[in-house]
Amino acid sequence: MRKQIAAANWKMNLTYQQGEKLLDEILHEKHALGAQQQVIFAVPYPYLIMAKSEVANEQNYFVAAQNCHHKKSGAYTGEIAVDMLKSIGIPYCVIGHSERREYFNESNQELAAKLDLLLEQEIQPIFCCGEPLSVREAGNQNEFVEIQLKESLFHLSATQLTKVVIAYEPIWAIGTGKTASSAQAQEMHAFIRSVLSKQYGAEVADSVSILYGGSVKAANADELFSQPDVDGGLVGGASLQSAEFIAIIKALKK
Ligand code: PEP
Description:
Structural class: alpha/beta
Distance between the termini: 9 Å
Shape: globular
CATH topology: TIM Barrel
Bound molecules: phosphoenolpyruvate
Number of strands: 8
Helix content: 40-55%
Number of helices: 12
Largest sheet: 8 strands, parallel, barrel
Strand content: 15-25%
CATH architecture: Alpha-Beta Barrel
CATH superfamily: Aldolase class I
CATH class: Alpha Beta
């Protein structure tokens, strides 16, 4: 079975103390994860080491950076390099979140470069894709997402692709309280898997975890995660409340 993942994306929220308290509350629950289940906390850079030590003794709980730079090193004041993440032992990194694509003009080509750097350092990328509302309304979401996948991922070998987690996040559902229906999520996840299958074969495509993101909460996680091609969620707002996020973790497929 593919990995089933609940990934929290804190974005630019919480002080260090609030973040520590939130992690304590979630981990205090002592929810034992199955061998194929994982929980990942994508926290702000200054909290990575703290979060890493919080999860250190927990089976299948991990931390992630929320971004990295597409160049290896150099004169990029304020940016964070993949090698820096590697040097503090960070196992996952979110890339291509729609907020980064929109506010920081990140292109599919830059994301391809980030993927190369991350995979070179054996940090697993959580690659976000998804269409804006205008594209969904025009019925062109499949073409839009296929281009994102092709331009960023298709230069990877099959072995490299198996290390990538994909998060499908329709932009119109992120932070809006508007969730894609479970049927819409399943349809797109199956489409993404078919695109991967055409390029890499069914076995590779079947091994890739595809998370859904966009207003996942305790109340809808069960239904979304029960879809055959939905392998968990990337969760923003609801990951900031311990009770909500604990319920989301518990909704992962066994
Ligand atoms: C996200 O940040 O990736 C996200 C999906 O946010 P929210 O759950 O708040 O919609």
